[in-house]
Amino acid sequence: MTGRWTFLGKLRNRVLGLTRAKSSSEPPRDAMRRETVRRAHILRDYEEDYESRLNQTTDQSARQVLMDDLHRFRMAHREEDIRRGVRPAVEEGARGVVMRQNMWARWIEVAHAHCVDAQLAAQRLKPGDTATLLEELRPQW
């Protein structure tokens, strides 16, 4: 168990940025992007370590401890992203709602654009002339 705690301590230092000083000549936007990429790599490393440790154990209680650790780490990671302004703040239990709303909005925009294109093509359609149907069948968005 001490190996796990040592790993978590080192990971905590990396997450909190205690291992590297910030450059004062770097623009704030670049520093924010660098920090975001660094944090994404930390999360990915933690998840890879979780997978390897999960594959090495067969005890159900040890597996549950690993899953709980990963859950706590992901939650802390999300909360820090929300604090930094990288991720939108949402209500507890509604984290996926923001993504679904964005997807539905985009689908409605695409459907509306297709409808408008079809109406314009139908207006230009003359009896016996099917050339304008190609525009409706091959939209330009």
What does this structure look like?
The longest helix is centred in the C-terminal third of the chain and has 30 residues, at 95-124. The chain is 74% helix and 0% strand. It has helices at 2-16, 28-56, 60-84, 95-124, 133-137. Helix 2 runs antiparallel to helix 3. The model has no long low-confidence stretch (mean pLDDT 77). The protein is mostly helical and 141 residues long. It has 5 helices and no strands. It folds into 2 domains: 2-89, no CATH class; 100-137.
Report the count of strand segments: 0
The helix tally amounts to 5
Distance from N terminus to C terminus (CA atoms, Å) equals 56 Å
Unreliable stretches covering 5 or more consecutive residues: none
Number of domains: 2
Strand proportion, as a percent range, falls in under 5%
Global structural class: mainly alpha
Listing every helix as H and every strand as E from the N terminus to the C terminus, the arrangement reads HHHHH
How big is the Rg?
25 Å
Largest sheet: none
- Average pLDDT, rounded to a whole number, is 77
As a percent range, the share of helical residues equals over 70%
User: What characteristic shape results from the CA principal axes?
Assistant: elongated
Salient structural properties:
2 domains; elongated; 0% strand
Describe the structure concisely for a colleague.
This protein is an all-alpha fold.
What order do the helices and strands come in, and which of them pair?
Elements (H helix, E strand, L loop, with lengths): L1 H15 L11 H29 L3 H25 L10 H30 L8 H5 L4
Helix pairs in contact: 2-3
